C-alpha cells in the first residue's frame, strides 16, 4: 500500500467525492469503503503482531489446536463424511487454517478439503501463498457440502448501520463531509428492515449497530453447508441498556474516532448474537450458545493441553534445558490469554446445526 492510502488520504478523497455526488451516506457504506474499498484497511496485512491488532490464533496456536478438536468432533457427529468440507470464512493470512490442519488427526485430514474464504484480495494472495484454496465470498461456494464453516472475528468486521433511538423510534446516523473531515448526521432509516434489528427496549439517545450483512452472511453460510455446523466466534454487543462502542484499531491501539483518515484503521463494534440466534432458530435450525470463549475452550480440552505442556516444562527444568523450559512457560502464558476474563475469554461462541441436532462440545454447558 502506498503512502497516500496508509494515512487514509486517498480513501478520504474517494469518500468526499462520493458524498459530494450523492449526499450523506450510511455508516455501513462508509465502513465498507474504509475497510474493503480501493486503498481500504484490509488491502494490507492488518492482523498479526506486525499489523494493527491480533486475534486469538495470533495470540496462541492453542486456539487452532482446540478448534481442530471441535472440527474432529463435528466430523464424528456427522457420521464421518468423506469428503468432509471445512470452510473458513474471513481466513485472513491463513494462521488459523494452518493451526487447524496441522492439529487434525490423519483420519480426518485425509478426508478433508479446507477452503479459505476472504473478501480481501491481499488476504487471498497470502492464503494461496500458504498453499490453501481461496475464494472471495461464501455466496460463490457451491452448496451441498457436508462439513463445517468456521468464522473467527469475521462478523464484527461486517459493515453496520448506526441507529439511534429517539422518542419517535430508531433513526439512522449518516456520514457527511465536515470541513476537512467527516461527521455524523441523523436522518430516517435507509432500509425498513433495520428497525427489526434494534431492541425495542433500547433507551432514547442510545446507539445500536444494526448489521443486516451478518444475517445475510449467516444465510449464505447455511446455504453453503448442506449438512453440518456453522461455528462463529466473536465479541458480542453488551445489552440494550449500555451504549455500544464503535471503535477501531491502528498499530495495536484502540481508537474511538473512526471517521478521520478512513482506511488507516479497522472499524468494529460487537456482534448481536441474539438476533443471529433468533434468525437461525426462525429458520428451524438448531442453535447452541452463545457461550463464552473461555467455556468453549475449556470444554474442548484446554486444561489437558496445558497440563501436558506443564509436564514438558517440568521435564525441561529437570534436564537443565532452561531455555526450553522458559519457552514452554511463556507459550503457556500466551495460551492462558485465550481464557482471560475482560479479554478474549469473554468473546462469544455460537454454533448452528444444519440437518443435525447433535450438540457439539464447545457450546455444551457441562463444565
Ligand atoms: C479481523 S480479520 C480476522 C482474520 C482471521 N479470522 C483471524 O482470526 O485472525 C477479518 C477478516 O474477514 C475478512 N472479511 C470481511 N468480510 C468478509 C466477507 N463478507 N467474507 C469473507 N471474508 C470477509 C476480512 O478481509 C479480514 O481478513
Structural topology:
Elements: H1 3-6, H2 9-22, E1 25-26, H3 27-36, H4 56-59, H5 62-77, E2 84-89, H6 95-103, H7 106-109, E3 112-117, H8 121-129, E4 133-135, E5 145-152, E6 161-166, E7 169-178, E8 181-187, E9 207-210, H9 212-224, E10 225-234, E11 248-250, E12 253-255, H10 273-282, E13 286-292, H11 293-299, H12 302-318, H13 322-336, E14 348-354
Parallel strand pairs: 2-3, 2-5, 3-4, 5-10
Antiparallel strand pairs: 1-7, 6-7, 6-9, 7-8, 10-14, 11-12, 13-14
Helix pairs in contact: 5-6, 9-10, 12-13
Bound molecules: S-adenosylmethionine.
Q: What structural category characterises the helix and strand content?
A: alpha/beta
**Low-confidence regions:** 1-5
Spatial order of strands in the largest sheet: 4-3-2-5-10-14-13
Work out the radius of gyration. 21 Å
Order of helices and strands: HHEHHHEHHEHEEEEEEHEEEHEHHHE
